[in-house]
Amino acid sequence: MTNFQFKSFKFLVVIFSFSLLVFSFCEAAVLYLEPAQGEYQPGDTFIVEARIDTQGECINAAAINLSFSRDILEAIDFSKGNSILSLWLKPLEINQAEGLVSFSGGIPGGYCGRLPGDPGQSNLLGRIIFKVREKNGELFFVKLEFGEDSRVLLNDGFGTPCELTFKGATFNILAGELEEVKDQWQEELEKDKIPPEVFDIEIQQDQSIFEGKYFIIFQTQDKQTGLDYYEVKEGDKNWQKTKSPYLLVDQELKSIIKVRAVDKVGNERIAEYIPEVSKRSSLFWLVLLIFVGFGIIWRIVKKFLISKS
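User: That's the sequence. What structure does it adopt?
Assistant: Structure tokens below.
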């Protein structure tokens, strides 16, 4: 290789490396709504899904703001069912007065988009349920739009914001004589016969949380209509609504703890934590019962043998 050829080769390597660097940046991730358009009438209830196309990028958190026509639409519910967000960072907020739905969540381990050839894999962030307000005699044209302050963070360990593009939705609200009112959300609720997924209760203690007192953490999902709430029960106390983490009343850890996860329909799943002291007590009574049982059986057998002899 001549000196000229060597220099030319080095130049090509530099250009090729630079091109890889330039083109390694992904296209902006896309926040979009499904359906993107449709026709509804006053009284209808319909579902709009907020989804994300990551364009090959890996993400681990999202904070979404969605505006809607508050005078024509009413946001009545929100479903986390089958969402890629599993760690919900703050409670959902539906602000009807401002026509705004806000939610945020995290994805432990990150999410890198739908796998090729697997269209069934979810890229769902959440489902918002809207009801068309009663406004007869007029034709309305409404929009749903993502707020420019919506954020998605890259799964790079630095919380780097991902570049985003937004695709909203437009709907026609029909005027004239009303047909039969449709309720997509009620149809979804009626189909959901499956309880939330199995989960565990973990006892934790951390000096930076609850002043170092014992608390429990728990989490599950409902892939149909989504979770509605959790309830906790310590020993013989009443059930009470709660969220994770939950500060235990019994700091001696002697009570049996139950957590009930309830979905939007009322299907429920109960997890139970039995403390070691209760396990030892249960084992003692079990062993005692076995010995008593053997004693009774032995007396019956002995009496039978004596009668035979």
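Residues 1-26 have pLDDT under 50 and may be disordered.
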